[in-house]
Specification:
8-stranded parallel beta barrel; binds 3-methyl-2-oxobutanoic acid; alpha/beta; 262 residues
Amino acid sequence: MKISDFAAHKKSGKKISMVTCYDYWSAQIINDSEIDTVLVGDSLAMVMHGHPTTLNASVSLMALHTQAVAKGAPSKFIVGDMPFLSYRKDLTTNMTAVEKIMKAGAHAVKLEGAKGNLGFIRHVVESGVPVMGHIGLTPQSIHQLGGFKVQGKTPQEYEDILEQAEQLQTAGCFSIVLECVPSELAKEISEKLDIPTIGIGAGVHTDGQVLVLQDMLGMNNKFAPKFLKKYLNGYDLLLGALNDYHEDVVAEKFPTDKESYS
Ligand code: KIV
């Protein structure tokens, strides 16, 4: 998928599939898959580094993971997340963050929210860097939102998110993530905008879907939000394999002659 394919998919009605990816080995599998596009999400702070929120992701950490993903998935369109506050400083610092993520191998950056970001988004787009927006539940504002919960349920929130979507399109975003919003709102936004929406917890009417790779592979047996579909019972499969290996080692069933040099 190239940047122009986002608009083409919107026009033809073909849905866009996106997954997060943070590392080289899973990037290699995704590269061989039919998945359209990859997000190096700042959720890596939680999934890969065990932090309780995404606030701990830094520009250098995002660049490091983006580099690994770019090496493993050279045929995929890669979006790199701009981490917490990295686009809320002075223009030089903000642009240096964009530069680091792009030079690490991303083809576009994503940032959260419209308020206070529109001028910067215009500048980034005019500098030749595609920008993906992200509204609804914006995890970098978790302490302001008061938790990971569905946004846009009151009429005021609904109108506010709709307005932000239109502003992001006008500012030049090529696509927008809609996270945890009622499907009626995601439908209205998707119908109103010319650019594709990518949903997570936003129902079926968005122009594409994104899931965290480890979530859709069922790697976390304690995480089961309503919006998630697990395509694999990864946790049990991996746990089983580890225990099989352990038992083989203890019972001297591994290695056998087959796995040994004479
Ligand atoms: O960081 C992330 O994984 C994201 C997705 C949830 C859209 O922003």
